[in-house]
Design a protein that fits this description.
The complex is a heterodimer.
Chain A (H helix, E strand, L loop, with lengths): L3 E5 L1 E4 L9 E7 L1 E3 L3 E14 L1 E7 L5 E6 L7 E7 L2 E7 L7 E13 L3 E12 L5 E13 L61 H13 L9 E6 L3
Parallel strand pairs in A: 4-12
Antiparallel strand pairs in A: 1-3, 2-12, 3-5, 5-10, 6-9, 6-11, 7-10, 8-9, 10-13, 11-12
Chain B lengths: L8 E3 L10 E5 L15 H4 L11 H9 L24 H8 L16 H9 L5 H16 L13 E4 L3 H15 L9 E5 L26 H8 L3 E6 L11 E2 L9 E2 L15 H8 L5 E6 L5 H6 L3 E4 L19 E6 L2 H9 L35 E5 L7 H16 L3 E5 L5 H6 L4 H15 L10 H7 L7 H8 L3 H8 L4 H19 L4 E5 L1 E2 L2 E2 L14 E8 L11 E7 L5 H15 L13
Parallel strand pairs in B: 1-2, 4-5, 4-8, 11-12, 11-13
Antiparallel strand pairs in B: 3-5, 6-7, 8-10, 9-10, 9-16, 13-17, 14-15, 16-17
Chain lengths: 237, 603
C-alpha cells in the first residue's frame, strides 16, 4: 500500500458559530491492493461546543466495503449504522456532560475487494448543546489494483550447509540489556501492530489511546480492527 | 446522504460493520444500568422511551435504531422527534441524551443540587462516599470556626453520624447494582436534632438529653433511609424547637448556651427554630435538610438563609419520633437550596403512619411524586391573591414583594390584591399551641421514644439538671404547670385552639374559593426579622406553605444589605404539588438565591 493521501472539505453552516469554523479531513492511502485493508481517518477539527455528531461515509462497494469501526470519544454514547453504500457513525455526549472541543479523529477500515478507483465521500453533522447544527463534507480517492502474482522462488537445497554446534558457545551475561530505547511520550512506538499493515498517516493519537484500542481489539474477539478515536480537549463547563 | 438503514439493534463491540445492524454503546464511564422506575422532574423524564421513568443509554439505543425514520416508515418514534422536523436525526438523539441524569464534567460540591449529585455519581465522577467525606470535611473546617472578622461560628451541627460512610458505601453499591433508584440515593442530608435517629443522639438542643439515643428512627428518617439518603448530621435548633434564634445547650457546660449564626452575616442569627438546618444547608455543609415548624420554624430560617422551605399540611408527614412542641400545629418538612431538591426530599417522607393518626387524612391526596409538578409554566393562568395588610412597610420587603408580584404577572399569573376578610385578623392572632400543649405532648414522646438512660424525663426534671438554655427556666416551669384540664380546654376535640384552627382553615379556604384563587402569597419576613403575624397563617389554618427566595436587601433599602427575604405561597390542604409547581416557576424566573461567599470551596 502506498503513500497516504489527505483531502479535505468544506463547512456548510446552518447556524453561524462564534468561533473558527470546524473542518473535516478525510485521510486514506492513495492506493491499495485487492485483499488489503484500507485505513481511513476522518478528522473533525477546530470543534467548539459539539454535543453530538454524525459521520456518514459512502463508497463504491464494488471496490471497497466497510470493514470495522470503533469507539468514539470517551464518555459518550456511540452507534454504528450500516448503510447500503457505507456506514454512519453517531456519537453524543450524555446528560449535562461538557461538549467536545478541539479535534476528534475517528478511524475505520475498508476492505479492498476488487480493482478499481473508488471515491470515499464523507459528510458530517455537528450538533451544539443548544441544538444548532453544522454540516461538513469531504472526499478522497483510493485506487485499488489487483494483487501481484507471486513469482516462484529458488528451490531449496536438500541439506543445510552448516551443522549446528552441540553446545552453546557462550554463557549468558548476568544482566540483559534493553533491546530498544524507550519510546517517547505520545509516540506510536508502543502500540500493538495494526491489522492490515497499512501505513497510517500521523494524527497525533496518543500511545494510551492506541493501547485502549488494543484492549478493545481483544474484547472484539480478535477481529481485524484498527479503530481509534480521541478527544483532544474536553472543555470545562 | 440518504440511504436505507437496516434496523437491527446489537450491543456495540468492535466488530466488522457488515456483521452488524445498528450497534451502540456508552463507554468511558459507568453508564447507568437499567433501573427500576424512578420519579424525576418532567423535563428529565418526558423523553423516556423505555418506560423506566428516566433516560438511559437504553433510550439512546432506541433512538439510534430509528435514525433516519420518518412518519409512516418502519421504526418511526414521534416522541423522539424532539425538534419536530419529521425526521429522526442525530440532533434528536442529542436532545434525548441531554435528558439523562449524567455529567462527566468537573463536579463542584458548593451549590450542588441533588440532580447535580446524581449526574456526577451516575458518571462515576464522584461517589456517595466521596460526597459524604466532602461534607464532613466542610463541617469540620467551617462549622465551629470564625470565618468573618467580628462574627461567630455557624454552630449549625450538633452531631455527625459515624454510620454515614457505611450508609454511603451501601448507596454506592446499590447504584452499581441497580442504577439510580431515587434522586436521594447517596445524598447526604441533615435532620434537625429533634428528629429521632437510632445512630445519633436526639437532644432537642438540650444538654439535658445528650444521652437520648433512641431505639428507632423517626418515621421521617426511615423514609429518607428507604430512599437511599445518607443521614449525615443532626442540626442545631432552638432548644425544644421554640424561638427564632436557634439557641441551644447541647455540648456546652450547664448554664451556658450557643447560638447559630447566619452564613451570610455571621454576627447575625440564622433564624429559628430550625436555624442549624438553615445555616448548614445554606453554607453547603450538607446536601439538604429537614426542619420542623410549629409557628414559623422552617420558614423563618429558610428566609434568613435564602432557602426553599416546605411547611406541609398537618397530616402529610408523620411526626412520630419527633420531639413535639404542639401537635396541633407541628409539622416537619424539607429545607433546600432549590425547589427541586425540596420536592425530592418531600417525596421521601410522606405517607400514612398509624403512629400519627392524622396522616390518614392524606389518603388519595398525595401525588406519586411532587417532582411531577415542577413546570416552568406552572404559573401561567394561575390566580394569585395577596392580602394587602400582610405586605408591611419594611423597605426591602415591600420592594421585593412588588418585584415578585410583577414577576408573577410576567410569567402568566393574574395577581389579585385582596382586602382582609372579616375574621382574618383573628386567624393571625391565634396564639401558638406550644404554651398549653408542650408538657402534654412531650410526655407522650417521653413515654414512647425517650431513651431509658435519660434521667430528665419531665420539664421539672429538665430544670433540675440546670443543663438547658439558661433563659428558658421560667418557660419550662410555667409550661410544666399547665394542667390536663387546661390542655383539654385548649387542644381537646372541642378545645378553643382546635376550634380556632378549624375556623381559620374554613375562612381562608372560603376566601380562596370565593375569589377563585389558586394560592395566597405574602412575604415570609423582613431582613433578619418577621413580618407582622404572617408566620401564623399556615399553622393557624393547618394549610401548607412553601417559602422561596425572592431577593436580597440593597444599600438603598436602608435595612441590612445582602439579607435575603422569601416569598411565601399558601394553598388549600394537601396542595403541596401546586405550591411547589408555582414556587418552581417563580424560582426559575428569578433565580434569587445567592451563595454565602464566606463558605466557598475548601482548598
Amino acid at each position: 500500500m502506498a503513500v497516504a493521501a489527505g483531502i479535505l472539505c468544506a463547512a456548510v453552516l446552518t447556524a453561524a458559530p462564534a468561533h473558527a469554523a470546524p473542518a473535516l479531513t478525510v485521510t486514506a492511502p492513495v492506493s491499495a491492493q485487492v485483499d488489503e485493508t484500507v485505513p481511513v481517518t476522518v478528522t473533525l477539527g477546530d470543534l467548539t461546543d459539539v454535543y453530538a455528531y454524525e459521520v456518514s461515509l459512502a463508497v463504491d462497494t464494488d471496490t471497497l466495503v466497510p470493514g470495522s469501526v470503533g469507539a468514539g470519544p470517551d464518555g459518550g454514547f456511540d452507534a454504528v449504522v450500516p448503510t447500503d453504500d457505507g456506514v454512519t457513525l453517531v456519537h453524543t455526549r450524555l446528560g449535562t456532560s461538557p461538549p467536545l472541543d478541539g479535534e476528534v479523529a475517528v478511524e475505520l477500515e475498508l476492505d479492498a475487494v476488487a480493482a478499481g478507483t473508488a471515491e470515499i465521500v464523507v459528510s458530517a453533522e455537528l450538533v451544539a448543546p443548544d441544538g444548532t447544527t453544522t454540516s461538513l463534507d469531504g472526499t478522497t480517492t483510493v485506487t485499488v489494483s489487483a494483487a501481484p502474482t507471486p513469482e516462484p522462488t529458488t528451490e531449496p537445497t536438500e541439506e543445510p550447509t552448516v551443522e549446528p554446534t552441540a553446545e552453546p558457545t557462550a554463557e549468558p551475561t548476568g544482566e540483559p540489556g534493553p533491546t530498544a530505547g524507550p519510546t517517547s511520550p505520545g509516540s506510536t512506538g508502543g502500540a500493538p501492530p495494526r491489522a492490515g499493515g497499512g501505513s497510517l498517516p500521523a494524527t497525533g493519537t496518543s500511545a494510551g489511546v492506541l493501547a485502549a484500542s488494543a484492549a478493545l481489539l481483544l474484547a472484539g474477539g480478535g477481529t481485524a480492527l484498527a479503530v481509534r478515536a480521541r478527544r483532544t480537549r474536553a472543555g470545562a463547563r | 446522504m440518504t440511504t436505507r438503514r437496516t434496523r437491527t439493534t446489537a450491543t456495540l463491540a468492535l466488530v466488522p460493520v457488515l456483521a452488524l445492524g445498528v450497534a451502540a454503546a456508552a463507554h468511558g464511564a459507568p453508564a447507568p444500568a437499567a433501573a427500576p422506575a424512578v420519579h424525576l422532574p418532567p423535563y428529565l423524564a418526558e423523553l423516556d422511551l423505555t418506560g423506566d421513568g428516566q433516560v438511559t443509554t437504553a433510550d439512546l439505543t432506541v433512538v439510534a435504531d430509528a435514525l433516519g425514520a420518518t412518519p409512516g416508515t418502519d421504526g418511526w418514534l414521534a416522541d423522539a422527534d424532539v425538534d419536530g422536523d419529521g425526521v429522526l436525526a442525530v440532533s434528536d438523539l442529542a436532545a434525548v441524551s441531554q435528558r439523562m441524569v449524567y455529567d462527566d464534567g468537573p463536579f463542584e460540591i458548593v451549590e450542588a443540587s441533588v440532580v447535580d449529585m446524581q449526574a456526577a455519581m451516575n458518571a462515576g465522577v464522584t461517589t456517595s462516599v466521596e460526597l459524604t467525606r466532602a461534607y464532613l470535611e466542610r463541617i469540620e473546617a467551617y462549622d465551629r470556626t470564625v470565618v468573618q472578622p467580628g462574627g461567630r461560628p455557624l454552630n449549625s451541627v450538633i452531631t455527625t453520624s459515624e454510620a454515614a460512610l457505611d450508609a454511603a458505601a451501601a448507596a454506592d453499591a446499590a447504584r452499581a447494582e441497580h442504577g439510580m433508584t431515587s434522586l436521594l440515593l447517596g445524598v447526604p442530608v441533615a435532620v434537625k436534632d429533634n428528629v429521632d435517629t437510632a445512630d445519633m443522639p436526639t437532644t432537642g438542643g438540650c444538654g439535658c438529653w445528650a444521652d437520648n439515643v433512641t431505639a428507632t428512627d423517626a418515621t421521617l428518617v426511615s423514609g429518607l433511609r428507604a430512599d437511599g439518603a445518607v443521614v449525615l448530621a443532626k442540626a442545631s435548633l432552638d432548644e425544644f424547637a421554640f424561638g427564632f434564634v436557634s439557641e441551644f445547650s447541647t455540648g456546652v457546660a450547664p448554664g451556658t448556651s450557643l447560638l447559630v449564626a447566619s452564613p451570610y452575616a455571621t454576627d447575625r442569627t440564622a433564624g429559628g427554630s430550625s436555624g442549624g438546618t438553615g445555616a448548614a444547608v445554606a453554607a453547603n455543609l450538607v446536601g439538604l435538610g429537614f426542619g420542623t415548624d410549629t409557628g414559623g420554624s422552617i420558614r423563618v430560617p429558610s428566609s434568613y438563609n435564602q432557602l426553599v422551605g416546605v411547611r406541609p399540611t398537618v397530616g402529610l408527614v408523620s411526626r412520630d419520633g419527633i420531639i413535639p412542641l404542639a401537635l396541633s400545629q407541628d409539622t416537619a418538612g424539607p429545607m433546600a437550596r432549590s425547589v427541586t431538591d425540596a420536592a425530592v426530599a418531600l417525596d421521601a417522607v410522606v405517607g400514612v403512619d398509624p403512629a400519627d393518626p392524622v396522616t390518614a387524612e392524606q389518603l388519595g391526596r398525595v401525588p406519586a411524586s411532587y417532582t411531577t409538578s415542577l413546570d416552568r409554566e406552572a404559573l401561567r393562568g394561575a390566580r394569585v391573591g395577596y392580602v394587602t395588610s400582610m405586605v408591611g412597610t419594611n423597605p426591602t420587603t415591600a420592594r421585593l414583594f412588588a418585584e415578585a408580584t410583577a414577576t408573577l404577572e410576567e410569567v402568566g399569573a393574574a395577581v389579585v390584591p385582596v382586602e382582609a376578610p372579616a375574621g382574618f385578623a383573628e386567624v393571625l392572632a391565634e396564639p401558638s399551641g406550644s404554651t398549653n400543649e408542650f408538657r402534654h405532648d412531650l410526655e407522650a414522646y417521653v413515654e414512647r421514644h425517650l431513651a431509658p438512660q435519660v434521667e430528665a424525663r419531665t420539664l421539672l426534671d429538665i430544670v433540675a439538671t440546670g443543663h438547658h438554655v439558661p433563659s428558658r427556666r421560667g418557660t419550662y416551669e410555667s409550661r410544666a404547670a399547665v394542667t390536663e384540664e387546661t390542655y383539654e380546654a385548649w387542644a381537646g376535640p372541642e378545645g378553643s385552639h382546635t376550634r380556632a384552627l378549624a375556623a381559620g382553615q374554613t375562612l381562608v379556604t372560603a376566601l380562596l374559593d370565593r375569589l377563585e384563587l389558586d394560592v395566597l402569597v405574602y412575604p415570609t419576613g423582613t431582613p433578619y426579622g418577621t413580618q407582622g403575624q404572617n408566620m401564623r397563617l399556615s399553622p393557624n389554618t393547618g394549610m401548607p406553605a412553601v417559602t422561596v427566595p425572592m431577593g436580597q436587601a440593597t444599600e438603598a433599602d436602608g435595612t441590612v444589605p445582602g439579607a435575603g427575604v422569601n416569598l411565601e405561597l399558601l394553598g388549600r390542604d394537601y396542595s403541596e404539588a401546586h405550591l411547589l409547581g408555582f414556587a418552581y416557576a417563580f424560582e426559575q424566573a428569578t433565580q434569587a438565591r445567592t451563595t454565602p461567599a464566606a463558605y466557598g470551596p475548601l482548598d
